[in-house]
Amino acid sequence: MLDTHQLLILAEVARYGSYTAAAKALGYSQPAISYQMRLLERATRASLVMRAGRGIVLTETGRRLADHAEIVLTALAAAEAEIRAMSEQRADTVRLGAFRSSCATLVPSLLDRLARSTPDDGGDPAPQLVVQQVEPPEAAQLLRSGKIEIGLLCDWTNEATADAERGLRRVSLMTDRRCVVVPADHRLARETSDGDEVDFADLADEPWVMETVRERFLAACAATRFTPRLVATADDHVTIQNLVTSGVGITLMNELAISAHLDSRLRVRPLANWPHRRIYALASPEALREAPVAHTVRELRAAARTIRGRLRATPVGADRPGLQAA
């Protein structure tokens, strides 16, 4: 293995064209530069420099090795800068990956609680939270790769735990229901009351406004033996609600997303016999033993309870739905 210090000297000799200039740039004596170059030639078993008049020039081998030295030294400098930045990062920083609707509901509540929280009994300050919006499968991958400390995920009560979560620990936060969202003048709004459940089969003839990711919806349609009439696709909840308000079609949304925003011209009815969605935090057992992560998870559970307390008394319907704490 070549000595990186000697490669640095070679790169400086190549840059300045003399031992004297290289020594001045590095703060060494000229004999020290000459000695290190002889050691490098011995290690490579090749002549790297040759005399040219009163100076020196690199041989073809020397020029080629100098080019490689620049690449190696640049890579090492980049690695050093990255490691320095990582070591300088606040020790109490917690990176959180959260799914979309939680970023508009649970995460803001969590941030508010962390901003107002006092140091733990041990004197540790509240963690500094860094949030990244990611969908559940990606969050599990980021946890395993060490790019986040906590994932905020969701799945359905009729689903088995994903293989990607093996070895990680779940912390239950709440459950919510899947709801149909319709205009205020829709027949469902007229024929049912707030909180009344709707059978999915009764929606077979409706036009639909749905998100791009809709595998569960299509599977439910197939199980109910109808082919949905998809008239619009959008992934922004406000856009979807505006389309439904205009009468283009109806849609399905979860209670947590509806709690973040519901157009006053819309009505909501929960679906009957539809699995509930589980919302939970995910982290490694080792991370959960770290004070900043444990603090964040405690405040996250409190944030979930706060949302439930605020919405519990309001039935699923014209205004805001209720949620269930796990």
Summarize the structure.
The protein is of the alpha/beta class. The protein contains 13 helices and 13 strands. Helices cover 44% and strands 21% of the residues.
Describe this structure in words.
The chain is of the alpha/beta class. It folds into three domains: 4-88, Arc Repressor Mutant, subunit A; 93-176 and 277-314, Periplasmic binding protein-like II (D-Maltodextrin-Binding Protein, domain 2); 178-270, D-Maltodextrin-Binding Protein, domain 2 (3-Layer(aba) Sandwich). It contains 13 helices and 13 strands. The strands form four sheets. It has a six-stranded mixed sheet, sandwiched between helices. The protein has a three-stranded antiparallel sheet with strand order 10-7-11. Helix 1 crosses helix 2, helix 1 (4-16) crosses helix 3 (30-44) and helix 2 (19-26) packs across helix 3. The two termini are 57 Å apart. Mean pLDDT is 89; it is low at 318-325.
